[in-house]
Amino acid sequence: MITYEYPLNERIRTLLRLEDLFERARNFLTRTDPYDHHVALVTLFEILEVAGRADLKSDLLQELERQKQVLLTFRGNPDISQDVLEAVLGDIERATGALFAMTGRVGQYLRENDWLMAIKQRTGIPGGACEFDLPAYHYWLHRPVEDRITELAGWIGPLYSLRDGSAIILRILRESGKPQEINATAGTFQQMLGGRTAQMLRVRLEPDIPCVPEISANKYVLNIRFLSQATDETRSRTAERDVPFELTFCNL
Predict the structure, then answer these.
(1) Which CATH number among 1.10.260.40, 3.30.70.100, 3.90.550.10, 1.10.3900.10 corresponds to the domain 10-173?
(2) What CATH number labels 176-250?
(3) pLDDT tens digits, one per residue of 122-180
């Protein structure tokens, strides 16, 4: 199944972006080619931009504390696995402690690194990181692989508390909903929400269905239009076929 997630507020949108960026950085950091490490470094700069929101850290701490208080009410409940519950509470405690240990502005140690900021400025220009623009960076890309990996890990490591806190919240969010099997007649689906609240929608499709969902939603109505992805078409259009899919409303 291919999963499409649609955030319904800015906070969840930010957490999903961070999740994607941290996963991309992890993927390229573990490789050995200089071009892969260039992508890892550019991704680190993107993480710095997204994580630069002044209220991100406090938002994470508040939400983790709220989830902790909710989970504590399940202690002793015979219908809940106490081992799983304690494991999640332990994860929350560790993530909260790591976030509290972050002092000052998020990523300030990176902003104070003039060498990194010079690279960041040039990578914002198409082709701006060529060797004649940044000879010192060109030299760094030719250093031993182990040295590059160690330095990349050192630059991104202090931000992992944001990654871990976000991961806990997104895991709880994803597990909060109950999937519904739905059929979109002629590629379209509409549902009146009637005051129903959600922070994220999850749409899942079989990979052999050549469609992608176009989602729009507000507090009154949800609209999903499935766009055909036929390879012989130059412009996307609404699928003419019925599209079976799985829909989940997720809410913390």
Answers:
(1) 1.10.3900.10
(2) 2.60.440.10
(3) 998 988 889 898 999 999 999 999 999 999 999 999 999 999 999 999 999 999 889 99
Residue 10 identity: E
Provide mean pLDDT across the span 225-248.
83
**pLDDT at site 237:** 85
